[in-house]
Specification:
This protein is an alpha/beta fold and about 425 residues long. It folds into 2 domains: about 300 residues, 3-Layer(aba) Sandwich (Aminopeptidase), CATH 3.40.630.10; about 110 residues, 2-Layer Sandwich (Alpha-Beta Plaits), CATH 3.30.70.360. Helix content is about 35%, strand content about 20%. It contains 13 helices and 17 strands. The strands form 3 sheets. Strands 1, 2, 3, 4, 5, 6, 7, 15, 16 and 17 form a 10-stranded mixed beta sheet that branches. Strands 8, 10, 11, 13 and 14 form a 5-stranded antiparallel beta sheet that branches. The chain has a two-stranded antiparallel ribbon with strand order 9-12. The protein is elongated, with a radius of gyration of 24 Å. It binds zinc ion. The site of zinc ion has 6 residues, from loops.
Length: about 425
């Protein structure tokens, strides 16, 4: 059975890599940094300018633009039956302060390029397709990240997120309203949100595809993240007069905990991620034995059971390694891993193979909007290589050819999903 039909191949052939690159470079001007990177915070003036650039691009092509209550932006190619839930191809236009041109923007613009390719192929599908920019994926200006996609998917309540503050002290809800007012797109209610499927093209942000000289990564899922905090209590004492046998040194105890846990990351093929990112010591002076040490652990793995297993090991280490100090372990948050449905993976795989692209399956180490969309509709992601795996960095780079290949696979997979029997 070949799921990739003639329409899918025709549309893929109409993907224009140069046109896509041009639009990417135009959008990269909004928030451009002197070093070639991009600093485009969510809901900033640069974000609005980038949105309006896409709205103008859409209207020049006869496509319509909508925005919902979370300021998600949708560029729509209307199908023959406008009442059917649309197939979405989305990512995000916001960047890290030290961001690059491709993280997020590529996925939004790849979606736009697929719409243009369908138009150029003279095809009008039954179902509408929409390229989407989800609001505030990065979460670098305000938390939580993935504001727009989580509101759309209902995994978080927009009202709660509107109450938050940005790092510069403004109210998120007011900023969302201001962005909606400044963006030249029609309004659409979040309550009317519907999705047939969601596909996201993205740079890998890791070194695997480049190292293996493979152009397409078929993302099997997104690893889960647990954040926790270990607080170790000892006793402050004079650094010169207190014999070591009598000390309760919280930092030495913490070092033993780290030394016990770090080897876990070398057990299997470098899948478990364990980061001791923040350490706070009291009283934090040179000549007093530390009375307390608090550290955060960021724990990631594609399997939720494995995260729980390692969490149990962390608790045990905190109990066994800190004597004569005491320790408490607190779970701060847990985002469960996501596995994308096999039917979507197989469709992307068939698309890559029909187009003669070499591909491999891969797990995403980073979170994405697709993590939320996967809770409400069949979802999949296509990765393309980026130079040395560098991302969240002005030096982020990807080749126009690789980006075009990813968009051709996206296009063929989207068309195949539209034509699948379940639709
Ligand atoms: Zn991203």
């Amino acid at each position: 059975m070949n799921m990739i039909g003639e329409n899918a191949k025709t549309v893929a052939a109409r993907v224009d890599g140069a046109r896509q690159w041009r639009l990417l470079m135009e959008v990269a001007q909004y928030g451009a940094r002197d070093d070639g990177g991009v600093d485009r915070p969510a809901l900033s003036a640069h974000d609005v300018a980038a949105r309006n650039h896409l709205v103008d691009w859409a209207s020049a092509r006869g496509l319509s633009a909508y925005q919902d209550d979370a300021a998600n932006l949708f560029i729509r190619l209307e199908g023959r039956n406008p009442d059917l839930p649309p197939l979405l191809m989305g990512s995000h236009l916001d960047s890290q302060p030290t961001g690059g041109k491709f993280d997020g923007a590529y996925g939004v613009i790849a979606g736009c390029e697929v719409l243009a390719a369908i138009q150029d192929a003279g095809i009008v599908p039954d179902r509408s397709l929409e390229a989407v920019s989800w609001t505030n994926e990065e979460g670098s200006r305000f938390l939580p990240g993935a504001t727009g996609s989580s509101a759309f998917a209902g995994t978080r309540q927009l009202a709660d997120m509107r109450d938050k503050q940005t790092v510069d002290g403004s109210n998120v809800g007011q900023e969302i309203d201001a962005v909606i007012a400044a963006t030249r797109a029609q309004r659409r209610s979040l309550a009317a949100a519907s999705a047939f499927a969601h596909l996201e093209a993205h740079i890998e942000q890791g070194p695997v595809l480049e190292r293996e000289n493979i152009r397409i990564g078929i993302v099997e899922g997104i690893q889960g993240v647990m954040r926790l905090r270990i607080a170790i209590s000892g006793e402050a004492a004079h650094a010169g007069t207190t014999p070591h046998a009598l000390r309760k040194d919280a930092v030495v105890a913490m070092a033993r905990v780290i030394d016990t846990l770090d080897p876990l990351t070398r057990e299997s093929e470098d899948v478990l991620r364990l980061t001791f990112g923040r350490i706070e010591v009291q009283p934090n002076v040179p000549n007093t034995v530390p009375e307390s040490a608090v550290m955060t652990i960021d724990l990631r793995h594609p399997s939720g059971e494995e995260i729980e297993r390692v969490f149990a090991l962390i608790e045990t280490a905190a109990i066994e390694q800190v004597a004569p100090c005491t320790a408490s372990v607190e779970r701060i948050s847990m985002v469960a891993p996501v596995a994308f449905p096999e039917a979507v993976l197989a469709t992307i795989e068939a698309a890559a193979s029909a187009l003669g692209e070499n591909a491999r399956r891969i797990v995403s180490g980073a979170g994405h909007d697709s993590l939320h969309l996967a809770r409400i509709c069949p979802t999949g992601m296509v990765f393309v290589p980026c130079e040395r795996g560098v991302s969240h960095n002005p030096a982020e780079a990807a080749s126009s050819d690789d980006l075009a290949a990813g968009t051709r696979v996206l296009a063929a997979a989207a068309m195949a999903l539209l034509e699948s029997p379940s639709s």
